Amino acid sequence: LLLLSLFGVLFSPSNSLSLSFPLTSHSVSSQEASLSLSSKTKSHGKLPFQYSNALVVSVPIGSPPQQMDMVVDTGSQLSWIQCHGKVRRKSVKPMINWFDPYLSSSFSFLPCNTTLCRPRIPDFTLPTSCDPTRHCHYSYFYADGTLAEGNLVTEKFTFSSSLTTRSLLLGCATASTQNRGMLGMNTGRLSFISQAKISKFSYCVPDRTGSDLTGLFYLGDNPNSAKFKYVNMLTFPKSRRSPNLDKLAYTLPMKGIRIGNNKLNISPAVFKPDPSGAGQTMIDSGSDLTYLVDEAYSKVRAEMVRLVGPMMKKGYEYAAVADMCFDGAVAAVVGRRIGDMWFQFENGVEILVGKGEGLLTEVEKGVKCVGIGRSDRLVTESNIIGNVHQQNMWVEYDLSNKRIGFGVAKCSGLKA
Questions:
Q1: Any bridge partners for residue 229, and if so which?
Q2: CB contact at 8 A, 214 and 48
Q3: Which residues contact 403 (CB under 8 A, 6 or more apart)?
Q4: Distance, CA of 282 to CA of 289 (rounded, Å)
Q5: pLDDT > 90: percent of the chain
Q6: Helices and strands, counts by H and E, the chain
Q7: Is 259 exposed, middle or buried (0-12, 13-18, 19+ CB in 10 A)?
Q8: 165/260 same-domain check
């Protein structure tokens, strides 16, 4: 309630919103992207985005707007941008997409005496604090070890002359391990969609090997949704306290995995939270790979050994999490022998998450791996469906109806 009264909203819930954006795929290890807002009618627009390890949009922030590259991350809450001021302008790194607060008339620091800056607010990975200038300081850590820290601020998002937010809360990072900002899209009260009252968004991730790498991203209604298969999300009471549970994530009732015609012998209990929260299955646009708990990973690996074991790279492990890897020269043969992979959900819903060589992702020059890692190597006991298994399909997050929609599509070159 405090956030809504402080920061206003982007769109009225009664509006039929549909903003769309292009998206591009890069098979590189660093995050790169650009997105521009096309001129459309008031009720329909589009944004492009690119991804390598992540989906990245270029969002217009400030007054006048500055285009800021931000990772679309359904697995985290706080949105933040890379910030610098006048004193640092000559020394900033040119590869980083910097926001200059001094160029925006709507920029404002959050003072220390606000409720959000109290140390016990549970929305940050470390307690907020008061810096020497009496501005609210935050630190935000992610599961992969990356971090961002700086000041909490309020700023406007200006998509067009008729679509401008009131000031929303975000982080103004002065130190981070990334060269892009973050657009937090989970269900937390500080996320972009929560503050802006956006109840639905979707994206179509292109594959990483085609010549046309442009896909599409929607805020609001998607005109293709009549063809989607929907899976109801699992939700948890706010009172539940479980050490391994992320209550703000998009949690799915996954039931199993099928490779070709072979449904793997994995207990359904592996994919749902136990009393401690371990086993939760989440869909996360900010994760490149898919991660499985040990029992599920072992069953998938055993099937890969059966199908293509002699072609695996012996003794090779990517980033200490994935060891189902192959020389690029045999990738096409490997893909044909593996066939299709399906994720299975409640009510008999099956989602095709990869076909043939498309199941493999290039992790370094000349090496491709099945895009699945061991979650225990991330010191987590969760299953995470990453964007490598979201290629060539629409993924819709429908918060009003508490469901996720999936629709097969050729995402490269989609037009609004």
A1: 406
A2: yes
A3: 230, 231, 232, 233
A4: 12
A5: 57
A6: 4, 29
A7: buried
A8: no
Query: When comparing pLDDT for 217 and 109, which is higher?
Result: 109
Identify whether the C-beta of residue 388 lies closer than 8 Å to the C-beta of residue 183: no
How far is residue 248's CA from residue 238's CA, in Å, rounded to a whole number? Answer: 10
* pLDDT at residue 87, rounded to an integer: 40
Beta-bridge partners for 47: 217
Residues annotated as catalytic (active site), given as ranges = 73, 284
260 pLDDT more than 90: yes
Question: Measured between alpha carbons, how far is 293 from 280 in angstroms, rounded to an integer?
Answer: 10
Q: Is 0.70 surpassed by the pTM of this model?
A: yes
Report the Cα–Cα distance between both ends of the chain, in Å, rounded: 35
Closest by Cα among 258, 280, 259 to 269 = 280
Domains contained in the chain, number: 2
Residue 392 has pLDDT above 60, yes or no: yes
* Residue 208 domain-assigned (yes or no): no
Q: What CATH number is attached to the domain comprising 351? A: 2.40.70.10
Band of pLDDT at residue 35, cut at 50, 70 and 90: very low
β-bridge mates for residue 233, sequence order: none
Q: How many Å is the Cα radius of gyration of the chain?
A: 21
